[in-house]
Amino acid sequence: MNVLSKLTDNNILLADGATGTYLQARGLEPGGDPELMNITDGNIVKQMARDYFKAGSDLVQTNSFGGNFYVQSRYDQGAKVDEINFLAAQLAKSEAVNINSKVKERYVFGSVGPTGELIEPVGTTSAKDVYAAFKQQVLALEKGGVDGIVIETMISLEEAKIAISAVKENTQLPVAALTTFDKGPRGFFTMMGDTPEKCYEELFLSDADIVGANCGNGIDIMIELGQRFRECGDGHVWINCNAGIPQIQQGQIIYPETPEYMLDGFSKLIDMGVNIVGGCCGTTPDHIRQIANL
What is the pTM of this model? Predict the structure, then answer.
């Protein structure tokens, strides 16, 4: 059964937790290229998928968040985009295949993050070039065997819509689009000034199959965001929460929200009808293990 059919049958899917947090604990240096580890340290990336599946994830994301040409070019790895994304998909998918059973099917979604470019006329990069970068990435992820694409941590609604088009016009994969919000005195807005309601409407109109929010906030704020998205309509909603706002303690980045602290919040997200829940920055297999027991 594919992911969309699973959701249509009113199943709740549990996604994975953080990628960067996991890899940094296993040798990724500060400022390093996480996606290059698909080539240099594939066993660690594969183990990450295995650990999240064993913790209870129904769905894991590939190690490809910064796998587009623009981000990889900043690491002088632009020529390796196809290889990086193909391996990202294969490494995670191999673990899904190994652990699948008649009782529970596991899925892999290709992670697609922002290019970091400002699109004309605000910036100097054309929408056509951004589209081409996303197309290259999603084709490599599809070739590697992903079950869907998740476009995430988007602060530009325009860029998110370009990424959706790149998926829909070049693959047969379902696509989720997750935006990132800050909460200020006037409420929730992306960095580009868009509200949850506008994102919900325009992303679905752009042919996203699932919409939602990730990153930037701990569980308490994400409960509010989840409610805002859920009140917009009955479309599939995906919420991934940080383990709180990072703090610096003795020179180390610490995320303060423990698995136990986040558990009640995830229960509330599920009760309000969010279809996919998972973790973002700072969350670990221990967080996922707690949620899986709900």
Answer: 0.97
